Amino acid sequence: MLLVALSALLLALGLIACGSSDDDSTAGDGSGQGSAKSAEAGAGGGAGSEKSDSGAGGSKQGDNSSGSEAGSGGFTPKRHSDSGGGAQQYRVKGGDNSVQEFGEEAGDAQFEAAAAALHNFLDARAAGNWRAACAYMSRSIVESFEKLAAQAKQVDATSCAGILSSLTNPAAKSAMKAEAAKADVGSLRVEGDRSFIIYTGVDRTILAMPMTDEGGEWKVASLAGTPLN
């Protein structure tokens, strides 16, 4: 059952390996394919409290390693441009808008920092730099992931990087690269210690990624974004 639970984290994005990855670092991704409410249930804690009624504007993400561990893994963040615009653009008439209406729009500084962290996670994963990708994941996600793997006898690796390297399907590399290239952040919704980034992915899929601010460094609080459309 432990291996099933672990595999479920990776299955939705087709990341279960037929063999070990050829890459030598750690990221990977499993997914919560479900409703907006399931995305809210997976939110991490620790988001900042700065709020603004105006939608976040478009921004250009500069080089931002968002943590020394990622930098030490040989990962160099890329520059990204995000359209911003706030959550109203994602609202669906008559649909479940629980994430789109969650809390309030974050201020520009929070938006830019959280968006950079999301891009860095996606880029590190696409590059097969599993160590760097793990560095952009929240502590609670990494600890839960490692705990599951440590109890699953079928998985030899016990570190976040090693687990993702051994379980990630090499065939999923093109999909991870496509998501990293297409990701366009439009909103960061914040309420107390919880927050969500809403972004557009491949084929115009709208996704919600729970985020957390750990001591001034933004981290993704899930292994994958949850589709909202």
Structure, explained:
The protein is α+β, with helices and mostly antiparallel strands and 229 residues long. It has one domain (2-227). The protein has eight helices and eight strands, in the order ααβαββαααααβββββ. The strands form two sheets. Strands 3, 4, 5, 6, 7 and 8 form a six-stranded antiparallel beta sheet that branches. It has a two-stranded antiparallel ribbon with strand order 1-2. It starts with a helix and ends with a strand. 49% of the residues are buried. Mean pLDDT is 76; it is low at 16-37, 40-55 and 62-72.
Strand content: 15-25%
Query: End-to-end span in angstroms?
Result: 31 Å
Helix content: 25-40%
How many β-strands, per DSSP?
8
Please state the CA-atom Rg, rounded to the nearest Å: 16 Å
Counting structural domains, the number is 1
- Topology as a string of helices (H) and strands (E): HHEHEEHHHHHEEEEE
Structural class: alpha+beta
Main beta sheet: 6 strands, antiparallel
pLDDT < 50 stretches: 16-37, 40-55, 62-72
The 3D shape can be described as: globular
Mean pLDDT metric:
76
Helix segment count? 8
